[in-house]
User: What shape does this take?
Amino acid sequence: MKDKVNDRTDQYGGSLENRCRFALDIVEAIVNEIGADRVGIRLSPFADYMESGDSNPSALGLYMAESLYKYGIAYCHMVDPRMKTIGVKVECPESLVPMRKAFKGTFLVAGDYDRGDGNKVVLEDRVDLVVYGHLFLANPDLPKRFELDAPLNKYIRETFYISDPVVGYTDYPFLETTA
Assistant: This one.
């Protein structure tokens, strides 16, 4: 979908509509096969990982949000623009609010949120749900920790994509409880 990497010259390249066509064709096919209530999508229009950015990520995200809403899918999950690069969170002027308004359905966001800023964006009605992927990996009891405002384990990115069955996903400690 991003113009920095999509150099096609057929119906799947060039204009914004053409670059988004493949993803929307897939969504339509899946909706027709299993029903819209069982379909969701995650998009990262602002991400610039591995030099795969877009010259106008706001327009890309807005177009996809508007287009996806027409299919009535269960949710749209966006990665916050402050997460343009892996492991680096920056404040930025871009916003997901126009996309949230355009989608009108259940709107999720990810982007290195902690308890405080996650609660803030929900209370401000900027999103419906906040996704805490990395925090859940490092804190198997994350809801309890949030409830108690307890300290969190720090995640170790280097262990995310290894085949060791003991190190990484399964060795983070639970919050100790006292009777």
